[in-house]
Specification:
Helix 1 packs across helix 3. The chain has a 7-stranded mixed beta sheet with strand order 1-2-3-4-5-7-6, sandwiched between helices. The chain has 5 helices and 7 strands; from the N terminus they run βαααβββαβαββ. InterPro entries: Acyl_CoA_acyltransferase, Bact_Acetyltransf, GNAT_dom.
């Protein structure tokens, strides 16, 4: 495998974030969800205005995993008021870690997670938290392997469909 480089994204990466975000979300969840709900979610979540706002928010950071000139995954983390819930100043939220299905099993998700961990430590956060769909057993196992524990549940809206996310956190040393 070619080596993977992880770079922090900026406003110039807007289209890349949109493309890889739509692709990886579709690959991960399309088979388990209605077409209409997927389309609504993708249109809203990856609109130019929404991604631009996220990319320019100083409390949100994006990182793209590159294999040469090919984006193969990405990470989005939030601190402070950018967090989707909790909004605890001592925490960092992992909002998204997605990897192209063609690159599953190649440790790219682990590299992106390691970037989130480094970011949390650099920002002197006490813990990392996230929400993961209760039916995404592969992701749940990944987070458990990395020391996360369940602490709550919340509702995630995919279009008009309400789904349950398991909230997990990892206390940092």
């Amino acid at each position: 495998m070619t080596s993977i480089i992880i770079n922090q994204a900026n406003i110039h990466d807007l289209e890349t974030i949109q493309l890889i975000g739509r692709q990886t979300f579709t690959e991960t969840f399309a088979a388990s969800n209605a077409v209409e709900e997927m389309e609504k979610y993708l249109t809203e979540s990856f609109s130019t205005e929404k991604v631009k706002t996220e990319l320019t928010n100083p409390e949100s950071l994006f990182f793209i995993a590159w294999e040469e000139d090919n984006p193969v995954g990405y990470l989005k983390v939030n601190s402070g008021n950018a967090q989707t819930e909790l909004q605890d100043k001592t925490s960092l939220e992992i909002e998204r870690i997605y990897v192209k299905s063609s690159h599953h099993g190649k440790k790219i998700g682990q590299l992106l997670y390691d970037q989130a961990l480094e970011t949390a430590k650099a920002l002197q956060k006490a813990y990392i938290w996230l929400g993961v769909w209760e039916e995404n057993l592969k992701a749940i196992q990944f987070y458990k392997k990395n020391g996360f524990v369940e602490f709550d549940k919340h509702i995630f809206r995919l279009g008009d469909d309400e789904q349950t996310d398991i909230m997990m956190k990892k206390v940092l040393e």
